[in-house]
Design a protein that fits this description.
Largest sheet: 5 strands, mixed
Radius of gyration: 14 Å
Strand order of the largest sheet: 3-4-5-6-7
């Protein structure tokens, strides 16, 4: 079950992990950072003009800094997955990190089936 929990460390009500994506993808929220790192878009649609390739370094830093072994993305409310985000997730997966996508839309599932990524990533449907 996916639960949106705050990061363990807070400073004045702010998560210390927010610096990873705040300048590149302000829509991306870090719900939990650790061996299991949970990211989401707060139910908002992703703007497809964002260059997710720019945040590849931030993803890799987050994975390294928190010794992430499993990366979970809450895709609730996201209709389409930009190719840049797919590329970043493939790069993360190549670092032996398990990828879990929660509540991917029908269109996202179709893209994952076409690319065969549905065979290597874990897809889940949960009530939110």
């Amino acid at each position: 079950m996916l639960t949106a929990t705050a990061s363990e460390t807070h400073t004045a009500g702010q998560s210390t992990t927010t610096h990873y994506f705040q300048n590149v993808i302000p829509e991306l929220e870090i719900y939990h950072a650790g061996e299991l790192t949970v990211l989401g878009f707060g139910g908002r649609e992703i703007v497809d003009q964002l260059n997710f390739a720019q945040c590849s370094e931030e993803f890799m830093n987050l994975v390294r800094d928190y010794q992430c072994q499993t990366l979970a993305l809450d895709m609730t409310g996201v209709r389409l997955i930009p190719s840049g985000l797919l590329g970043v997730l493939v790069t993360v997966h190549l670092q032996q990190i398990d990828i879990h996508l929660f509540n991917p839309s029908r269109d996202i599932r179709e893209v994952l089936e076409i690319t065969k990524l549905d065979r290597v990533w874990h897809l889940h449907e949960i009530d939110v």
